[in-house]
């Protein structure tokens, strides 16, 4: 597939410089010290990791994000550009600090995330190159830069370009501001429960799906993907894997399902593709760096699903 034939994502949201440490046991209670068995440093963030997966699996992506004008903010542009992302729309804001995070991953693959975001970073979306949406196939946003996401999703609707929101855990008012603008509202299970004010995923999907104008689904980790369709709840199971690191798995899921949908796959097929990609990522340490190649995803899909029919939950 040529560069011009590849689906294109216009991605708006968070970017961060993250240090990841793997420990061989559970994180002990404080105060304590623990030695890491592995560590790496990575440029990530919800939408940055999703855009990376979109590119690694066969698409192209333009990342619109804000960083400081410090050394990290300058270097992360080059890091992601070297990995195939269009970084021409990264804005380095003078006098601010690039977002930083430290992540500890335990022996089960669960993680503790400690993040720092400079609150003085300019929140204005006025500089966004909205004209580039017209040559994109999908606009994908996270909830970490509300003003940017709202502006991009509104522009996408006006230009009749589908928009997707990564509706992860966020304040209710933020979700209420962004979810109604997205053609594809792809929640985490926890984000869906916050938005719906329900206590279980299926009830929440019925409630939200019945009133939303587009697609509504929830990524539920090892339990796969559930979505609302024509008054029913449908489900794709996730491949069973030995989990090493869950960091960025949800972001990889979003990038993968967006790509599959823009390639013309139906929801069930796109969900299988995304579940396979996210599950494989969980077998590898390093956050988004564990995103698999396309051939690996397709092999995992065949091994897990074969030609099984869609499932109703």
Model description:
There is one protein chain. The protein has 313 residues and is an alpha/beta fold. The chain has a single domain (8-312), classed as UDP-N-acetylmuramoyl-L-alanine:D-glutamate ligase. 33% of the residues lie in helices and 24% in strands. The protein has 9 helices and 14 strands. It has helices spanning 46-56, 71-82, 146-158, 172-178, 189-196, 201-211, 249-262, 267-282, 294-305; strands at residues 8-13, 16-22, 38-44, 60-68, 90-93, 100-105, 111-116, 138-141, 163-167, 184-188, 215-219, 225-229, 232-236, 311-312. A 10-stranded mixed beta sheet has the order 5-4-1-8-9-10-11-12-13-14, sandwiched between helices. It has a 4-stranded mixed beta sheet with strand order 3-2-6-7. The longest helix has 16 residues, at 267-282. The two termini are 36 Å apart.
Task: List the keywords.
313 residues; alpha/beta; UDP-N-acetylmuramoyl-L-alanine:D-glutamate ligase; ten-stranded mixed sheet; 14 strands; 33% helix
Number of separate strands: 14
Class derived from helix and strand content: alpha/beta
Mean pLDDT: 95
Distance between the ends = 36 Å
Q: What's the story with the biggest beta sheet?
A: 10 strands, mixed
Assign an overall shape.
globular
Helix content: 25-40%
Give the count of helical stretches.
9
Share in β-strands: 15-25%
Number of domains: 1
Identify the CATH class.
Alpha Beta
CATH fold-level name:
UDP-N-acetylmuramoyl-L-alanine:D-glutamate ligase
The H/E string reads EEEHEHEEEEHEHEHHEEEHHHE
